[in-house]
Amino acid sequence: MDKPGPGGGQHALFCADKKVVKVNKELKNNNAAVTRHITPDKVLTHWSRSIDLCGRAMVKAGDVLFVAGPASADEIYFDDKDAPSALAAFDARDGQALSKTDIDSQPVFDGMAAAHGRLYISAIDGTVSCFGQNQE
Q1: Which strands, in side-by-side order, build the sheet including 118-123?
Q2: How many helices (H) and strands (E) does the chain have?
Q3: Band of the pLDDT at 21, cuts 50, 70, 90?
Q4: Are 85 and 103 within 8 A, CB to CB?
Q5: How many CB atoms lie within 10 A of CB 73?
Q6: Which residue has the higher pLDDT, 115 or 52?
Q7: pLDDT of residue 8
Q8: Domain span holding position 34
Q9: Which CATH number is 87's domain given?
Q10: What distance, in Å, lies between the first and last C-alpha atoms of the chain?
């Protein structure tokens, strides 16, 4: 029996304004009630890039955006603790890739936190990993 999964391919990472811009455009819809109550919006994007992992956990620390998740493949299974996974760092100002490292197990959804110069990832295999510089 095949496992359900979202499929593979490229994923997008982007930075956009929190507010959207209302668009003055008439919607083509046969349902008049829907047309009266829906106004299209436009999202203002500052940068966008394709990434080769499916982000399950993200955290921004200063000007660095950390993304962790299973590496893109033909099939990604979110319950597979042995699926190839990675942690990547991007410059939050322009989206440039800073670094990437493999991790042993994929993170739980939203299972990442940053504190005191360290990054903590809770994984679906029950472990918690800590990344950061040694401070003596």
Answers
A1: 107-115, 118-123, 128-132
A2: 1, 9
A3: confident
A4: yes
A5: 16
A6: 115
A7: 39
A8: 11-50
A9: 2.40.10.480
A10: 52
Residues ≥6 apart with Cβ < 8 Å to 79:
3, 124
Asked whether the beta carbons of 114 and 61 are under 8 A apart, the reply is yes
- pLDDT value at residue 31: 61
**Cα–Cα distance, 74 to 89 (Å, whole number):** 23
123: which residues sit within 8 A by CB, 6+ positions away? Answer: 81, 103, 104, 105, 106, 107, 108, 111, 129
Phi first, then psi: what are they for 37, rounded to 5°? -105, -5
Mean pLDDT throughout 109-122?
95
Give the mean pLDDT of 6-30. 71
| Co-location of 90 and 122 in the same domain | yes
Instruction: Provide the pLDDT for residue 134.
Output: 65
92 touches 60 (CB < 8 A): yes
Confidence (pLDDT) at 15: 92
